[in-house]
Amino acid sequence: AQKVTQAQTEISVVEKEDVTLDCVYETRDTTYYLFWYKQPPSGELVFLIRRNSFDEQNEISGRYSWNFQKSTSSFNFTITASQVVDSAVYFCALSEANDYKLSFGAGTTVTVRA
Amino acid sequence: DAGVTQSPTHLIKTRGQQVTLRCSPKSGHDTVSWYQQALGQGPQFIFQYYEEEERQRGNFPDRFSGHQFPNYSSELNVNALLLGDSALYLCASSLRHNEQFFGPGTRLTVL
Questions:
Q1: Do the Cβ atoms of A47 and B101 come closer than 8 Å?
Q2: Which of A20, A89, B63, B89 could form an SS bridge with A107, CB 3.0 to 4.6 Å?
Q3: pLDDT digits (tens, 9 = 90+) for A11-55
Q4: CB-based contact (8 Å) between A102 and chain B?
Q5: A54 has a chain B CB within 8 A of its CB
Q6: SS3 category, A53
């Protein structure tokens, strides 16, 4: 069975600090997809990134970067120079190739203080 | 280009009642998935519809049922509501097995 663990429940930082969110996953499949979503107070889940299991290249998008390491089954997410607008709950999710559902972690609440 | 839309935004029901939630997918998407998100938890998969059929189902009782229409829109029905059904219900659309885009959700409160 697939499983996603986000060990950090809450993280609080001051604006301009960097913040890294941990995500560890479990799957028996060799082909799978990993996702990060942001959920601001409005409630809508906003898609941030999707990676497939064959692509371990790290990715950077503006102030966001992702570090995918199959050896440790981790897919960590870093926000550089955080801003107040980054305050939200962030979810890591996993989908296996022959499965259609997203399995989410419990989420990490990020609070960025001005 | 409209994203995923859901209605209603909020809903209050009493135990034992039935509820219907609606979802319109993002333009160009043919697959709709439903998730339940209890307070402080991650979303849990209810089921997914593709080509008007339920393609996959999560660990939810038969009280939860759905439908997909020819225009790809979808409904989620919950019968015999329980207090524990209070949650944010999220609809997500995708093009087959690609990334899922979520709507704003329907907040259901069961009293």
A1: yes
A2: A89
A3: 999 999 999 999 999 999 999 999 999 999 888 999 999 999 998
A4: yes
A5: no
A6: coil
